[in-house]
Specification:
By secondary structure, this protein is of the alpha/beta class. The chain has one domain: Rossmann fold (3-Layer(aba) Sandwich), CATH 3.40.50. The chain is about 35% helix and about 15% strand. The protein is built from four helices and three strands. A three-stranded parallel beta sheet has the order 1-2-3, with helices on both faces. Strand 1, helix 3 and strand 2 form a beta-alpha-beta unit. It is globular. The two termini are about 20 Å apart.
Length: about 90
């Protein structure tokens, strides 16, 4: 979130849209603020439904940070599953 705020000067919250975060509009607004198409965004989150399913529904790529080794219970699959942010960073090194 810090780098996002640094890049676009704005953070987005579901309260900005009066909807649950899985509403595609919040994801589209974040992509538009960076002037990139949704499919160019990797959304990283730890909530399977609100973060991952929401991002996938908005046409974004999604990474699920699963710190508790919970089973994945949804039909749509995240692009990547990691146990922590260090594991995610290692994918980019």
């Amino acid at each position: 979130m810090i780098s996002f705020i640094r890049e676009c000067g704005r953070a987005f919250s579901d309260s900005d849209f009066c909807r649950m975060p899985r509403d595609a509009r919040i994801f589209h607004a974040a992509a538009a603020a960076l002037d990139v198409p949704p499919e160019a965004v990797l959304h990283v989150g730890d909530d399977a439904l609100l973060d991952v399913i929401g991002a996938l529904g908005a046409g974004m790529q999604a990474a699920w940070v699963n710190r508790g080794e919970h089973p994945w219970l949804h039909e749509q699959q995240p692009h990547v599953m990691v146990a922590d942010l260090r594991q995610l960073c290692a994918l980019f090194s």
